[in-house]
Specification:
Organism (chain A): Heliobacterium chlorum
Protein name (chain A): Stage III sporulation protein AB
Oligomer: heterodimer
Distance between the termini of chain B: 24 Å
Number of helices of chain B: 10
Pfam families (chain B): Spore_III_AA
Keywords (chain B): ATP-binding, Nucleotide-binding
Structural class of chain A: mainly alpha
CATH class of the largest domain in chain B: Alpha Beta
Pfam family, one (chain A): Spore_III_AB
Shape of chain B: globular
Order of helices and strands of chain B: HHHEEEHHEEEEHEEEEEEHEHEHHEEE
Largest sheet of chain A: none
Strand order of the largest sheet of chain B: 13-10-14-15-7-16-17-18
Number of domains of chain B: 2
CATH superfamily of the largest domain in chain B: P-loop containing nucleotide triphosphate hydrolases
Structural class of chain B: alpha/beta
C-alpha cells in the first residue's frame, strides 16, 4: 500500500513539474508579446501626450493584460511616491520583484532592464529610441521563445510523466 | 523678525512660537514641501515652525548645488545649510515627476509651473542646438517663486480706467521695475474685469489673456491655478505677438491682457488689437515713463496712442507702491504715494 502511495506521489510530482514547465514555456512568448504592446502604449504616451512617467505607467497598466499590468501599475505608483529616487532605480527594483513571479527568463529581464537607461532623464527622442530598442529585443526573445515551445513544449508535457513512470518502474 | 545673512540658523533671533501664521500663508509650504527631497523637508519645516513670520515674508526659495539653501524675501535673505548635488538632482526629479522629456519646452524656456501656480526657474549648463537653447543640463540652480494672489489689489485702479464716454475701458500699461507688483496688479485687474464689479455698475466681460511666461494665470497642464475670473480665456505659453492675434481671431475678447510687452514684434499685434475695438491691458519693465519712451517697441506703441492710461509702480514703500497714473499725454491723472 505504501509502495503504491509513494509511486503515485512520484508520478504526480514528475508529471506536475513537466506540466508546469510546459505551461511556462507556452506563457513566455505570450507575455513577451504583451510587453511589446505595453511598450508601444508607453511610447505613444511619451511621444504624443508628453505624459509624465507616473501617469504614463499607470495608463500602460490599464491597457495591458496580466501579469504585465502589475509591473507597470507598481512602477507608476512608486514613481508617484518617488521621494527623489530616479526612475531608473525604481524601474529596476520593480522589475526585480516582478520577474520571479512570471514565466520570463533572466535574459528577458535583462532586456527589460535596459529600459532603465536614461528613463525619465533623457530627451523625448532618446526615450522613444530606447523603448523601440527594448521592444525589438523583446521581439527577438519572443521569436526564440516560440521556437523553444515548438521544440520542447511537448517534451515537457509528456516528459515529466514519462520520467515519473520510469522512476516508479525502477523502484518497483 | 530680523532678516540676516547667516550660515545656519541663529538661535538668538527666534521669535515666540505663539506667533502662528494663518492657514492661507501655510498653504504654500504644504504645496511645495513634496517637491523637496526628504532630507530637506525637516529643515524647512523646522525653520518655518521656529520663524513663523517667514511664511508671509518669503517670496523665493533658492537652491544652488554646493551652496546654502536661501529663503529670500524683500527684507533680505536667510541662508540655511548647503544643498548637495544629490539633493538638487532629487528636487529636479520631483519637480519633473521623473519625466524630463515631458517638460522639454519648459526646460528650454528656463522655467516651469507647479500646481498652485508656483514657478520654478532653472539655471545650469545650457545645451545649444543651432545656436538656440535646447535644454539645461545639468541643472545647478533652482529658484522657486512662491505664487501669491492679492484679491482686491486692483480695487482702486478699476474706477480710474473706466472712461466716462464711449468705450469699455481705457487701454492701460502698468509699468514697474521687477518685483514692483505689476503682474499681481494685472492679475487682479483681469479677475475683476472678468467677474464684473456690481458696485461700479460693471458687468463681467470676456477677457483674452495671453500668458507667455505662465505668470498671470500660472497654468499647470493647461488649467489656470490662479483666479483669473470666470470669463477669461487663457493662451498659456504662447508668444505675445502671435497670442494676441490668435485671441482676436478665435475667441472674440472684449479685453486683451498680456505681460511684459515691448519688443518690436509685439507692435504689430498691439496695433491690430487697438484697431479692433478691444481694450488692452499690459505690463512693461521700467522705473518711469521716460524708460518706456527709450525702448523702441514701446515708443512705437506710444506713437500709435495704444494706451490711454499708464500706471507706474515701484517698491519704494514695498511692492505695489503707486507712483502715479498718467494719461496718453503723460499728464498725471493721479499722484502717487499709496500702496495697491
Amino acid at each position: 500500500m505504501l509502495k503504491l502511495f509513494g509511486s503515485t506521489l512520484i508520478l504526480g510530482a514528475c508529471a506536475g513539474t513537466g506540466w508546469m514547465r510546459s505551461r511556462d514555456l507556452r506563457n513566455r512568448p505570450r507575455l513577451l508579446a504583451g510587453l511589446q504592446a505595453s511598450l508601444g502604449v508607453l511610447a505613444t504616451e511619451i511621444a504624443y501626450g508628453a505624459t509624465p512617467l507616473p501617469e504614463a505607467m499607470i495608463q500602460v497598466s490599464r491597457c495591458s493584460s496580466r501579469p504585465a499590468n502589475g509591473l507597470f501599475a507598481v512602477a507608476g505608483q512608486r514613481l508617484r511616491e518617488a521621494q527623489g529616487r530616479s526612475a531608473a532605480e525604481i524601474w529596476r527594483s520593480c522589475l526585480d520583484e516582478w520577474l520571479p513571479g512570471t514565466s520570463l527568463e533572466k535574459s528577458d529581464g535583462e532586456e527589460l532592464g535596459r529600459l532603465a537607461l536614461g528613463l525619465g532623464t533623457a530627451p523625448r527622442d532618446d526615450q522613444l529610441a530606447r523603448i523601440h530598442e527594448v521592444k525589438n529585443r523583446l521581439a527577438l526573445q519572443e521569436r526564440d521563445a516560440r521556437e523553444l515551445v515548438e521544440r520542447m513544449g511537448k517534451v515537457w508535457s509528456y516528459g515529466g510523466a514519462l520520467i515519473g513512470s520510469v522512476i516508479v518502474l525502477v523502484i518497483w | 523678525m530680523r532678516w540676516v545673512q547667516a550660515k545656519g540658523l541663529l538661535s538668538d533671533d527666534r521669535v515666540p512660537k505663539e506667533t502662528i501664521p494663518n492657514r492661507s500663508e501655510q498653504k504654500w509650504l504644504d504645496q511645495l514641501l513634496p517637491y523637496f527631497p526628504p532630507s530637506l523637508r525637516p529643515l524647512l519645516d523646522e525653520t518655518y515652525s521656529n520663524f513663523p513670520d517667514l511664511f508671509s515674508e518669503t517670496s523665493e526659495i533658492r537652491l544652488r548645488a554646493g551652496r546654502p539653501l536661501a529663503l529670500c524675501g524683500y527684507r533680505g535673505d536667510r541662508l540655511l545649510r548647503t544643498v548637495t548635488d544629490e539633493e538638487l538632482l532629487q528636487t529636479v526629479h520631483l519637480i519633473a515627476q521623473c519625466s524630463l522629456y515631458a517638460f522639454e519646452e519648459e526646460f528650454r524656456q528656463g522655467f516651469l509651473t507647479l500646481p498652485g501656480g508656483h514657478r520654478v526657474g532653472l539655471a545650469g549648463r545650457t545645451v545649444l542646438d543651432g545656436g538656440k537653447v535646447k535644454t539645461i543640463h545639468p541643472v545647478s540652480s533652482l529658484n522657486i517663486r512662491i505664487a501669491r494672489q492679492f484679491p482686491g489689489a486692483a480695487d482702486w485702479l478699476l474706477p480710474r480706467i473706466v472712461p466716462v464716454g464711449e468705450g469699455l475701458f481705457f487701454s492701460t500699461l502698468i509699468i514697474s521695475p521687477p518685483g514692483g507688483g505689476k503682474t499681481t496688479l494685472l492679475r487682479d485687474l483681469v479677475r475683476q474685469i472678468s467677474s464684473g464689479r456690481p458696485d461700479l455698475g460693471l458687468a463681467g466681460v470676456t477677457v483674452g489673456l495671453v500668458d507667455e511666461r505662465s505668470e498671470i494665470a500660472a497654468c499647470y497642464r493647461g488649467s489656470p491655478q490662479n483666479d483669473v475670473g470666470p470669463r477669461t480665456d487663457v493662451l498659456d505659453g504662447c508668444p505675445k505677438s502671435e497670442g494676441l492675434q490668435r485671441m482676436l481671431r478665435s475667441m472674440g475678447p472684449q479685453v486683451l491682457a498680456t505681460d511684459e510687452i515691448g519688443r518690436m514684434e509685439d507692435v504689430r499685434a498691439v496695433e491690430e488689437a487697438i484697431h479692433s475695438g478691444v481694450a488692452l491691458f499690459a505690463t512693461a519693465h521700467g522705473q518711469n515713463l521716460e524708460d518706456i519712451v527709450r525702448r523702441p517697441g514701446l515708443a512705437e506703441m506710444l506713437r500709435m496712442n495704444a494706451f490711454q492710461r499708464f500706471v507706474v509702480l515701484s517698491r519704494r514703500r514695498g511692492p505695489g507702491t503707486v507712483e502715479g497714473i498718467f494719461d496718453e499725454n503723460r499728464n498725471a491723472v493721479e499722484e502717487g504715494g499709496r500702496l495697491c
